[in-house]
């Protein structure tokens, strides 16, 4: 080697060698930062099992890609005697994904950044027609406007729907709560709407409850659980999802955990599926309003109406209290059956179920414990979902996954 070689070139070569060695760690490193498990370069080094130099090169490459920011001023952890370490933050103005959610009375669209951040959002109440393209085109155009307004780069798109879809092709199976036909190629229609709006990148579709569970597990109430069960009701109907060892359990073709069709009242209301007394129609907002003998109001979502009634009336209105207790007993029966089958280490509840839990946690815990084998031997923690727009964040998680798999291929390819 030439003794007069430029030392800067040697330094650059060393850095490049370190980066080449750690290139396969770019995706895992990004996901650690994204989920908050690597807040500093020192923690990243430990989590990846690489040298400090390699971790530094990986962080520098992710920063060069515009995905993260490395704090220029290292800080020491509280009470630590070790060397200060640089903080690792998701880039505030980095790339985003477009996430959309459709429900029985409209849509919501958002731009989702790394870290599960909702960067911008738009929504509207619309009558849902039989043609999926009618609603999806409007939702995508709303997302396109958000992209134009923010000037951010979009690297993919995800859609949350209130029914089961096949994996990976995204075909609708029994969209009972919407007017869409069974067998509708939802993913293909969504992709076509995106292309028409000039939005590129991978496209994904998932059940909204699965995506809620995924988002809560990575960023909020489900973080750290090994066997996480999520049950929730939104505007109408009940859904469930299971995260096992960090991964969604969706079954052989995406249809696992249709918990809404557990029977909790043999003489109950007719269900859309053809049975009676299903969790789907016994513990959702319409069921709560019916228990009170109230008709849905002319404005606002059924979920909001039910939540407002519980918040404003549970403490002093005997009718509201009785309706809450009735739904808690049915919900507890359904949860107890799921505990017996799945033995989760945590259950998180969303939508109206969250409001029921917060109104009378002792009663719901008691029903689950009394009705379940595992509940009697050791209480399963029941917690509220805490992440705003969790289904949208979950749809964003699907769209971010190709970046986690290979950041360079997506952003430079």
UniProtKB/TrEMBL annotation:
Pfam families: ROK. Residues 7-23 have a biased composition (Basic and acidic residues). It comes from Streptomyces fragilis. InterPro entries: ATPase_NBD, ROK, WH-like_DNA-bd_sf. Residues 1-24 are annotated as: Disordered. This is ROK family protein. SUPFAM superfamilies: Actin-like ATPase domain (SSF53067). Belongs to the ROK (NagC/XylR) family.
């Amino acid at each position: 080697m030439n003794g007069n070689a430029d030392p800067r070139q040697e330094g650059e070569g060393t850095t490049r060698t370190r980066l080449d060695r750690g290139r396969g760690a770019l995706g895992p490193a990004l996901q650690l930062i994204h989920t908050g498990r690597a807040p500093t370069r020192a923690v990243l080094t430990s989590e990846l099992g690489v040298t400090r130099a390699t971790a530094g090169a990986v962080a520098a490459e992710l920063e060069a890609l515009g995905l993260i920011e490395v704090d220029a001023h290292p800080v020491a952890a509280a009470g630590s005697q070790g060397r200060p370490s640089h903080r690792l933050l998701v880039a505030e103005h980095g790339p985003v994904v477009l996430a959309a959610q459709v429900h029985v009375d409209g849509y919501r669209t958002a731009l989702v950044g790394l870290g599960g951040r909702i960067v911008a959002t738009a929504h509207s109440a619309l009558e849902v027609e039989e043609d999926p393209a009618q609603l999806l085109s409007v939702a995508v155009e709303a997302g396109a406007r958000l992209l134009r307004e923010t000037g951010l780069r979009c690297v993919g798109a995800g859609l949350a729907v209130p029914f089961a879809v096949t994996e990976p092709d995204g075909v609708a199976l029994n969209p009972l709560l919407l007017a869409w036909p069974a067998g509708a190629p939802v993913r293909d229609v969504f992709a076509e709407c995106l292309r028409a709006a000039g939005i590129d990148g991978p496209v994904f579709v998932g059940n909204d409850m699965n995506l809620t569970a995924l988002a809560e597990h990575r960023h909020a109430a489900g973080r750290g659980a090994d066997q996480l069960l999520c049950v929730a009701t939104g505007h109408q109907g009940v859904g469930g999802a299971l995260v096992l060892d960090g991964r969604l359990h969706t079954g052989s073709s995406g249809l696992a955990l249709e918990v809404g069709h557990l029977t909790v009242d043999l003489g109950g209301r007719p269900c859309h599926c053809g049975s009676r007394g299903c969790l789907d129609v016994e513990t959702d907002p319409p069921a709560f309003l019916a228990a009170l003998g109230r008709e849905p109001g002319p404005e606002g979502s059924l979920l909001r109406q039910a939540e407002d009634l519980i918040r404003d009336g549970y403490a002093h209105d005997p009718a509201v209290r009785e309706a809450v207790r009735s739904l808690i007993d049915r919900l507890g029966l359904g949860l107890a059956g799921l505990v017996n089958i799945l033995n989760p280490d945590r259950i998180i509840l969303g939508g109206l179920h969250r409001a029921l839990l917060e109104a009378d946690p002792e009663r719901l815990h008691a029903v689950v414990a009394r009705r379940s084998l595992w509940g009697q031997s050791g209480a399963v923690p029941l917690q509220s979902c805490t992440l705003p727009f969790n289904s949208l964040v979950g749809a964003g998680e699907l769209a971010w996954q190709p970046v986690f798999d290979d950041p360079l291929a997506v952003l430079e390819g």
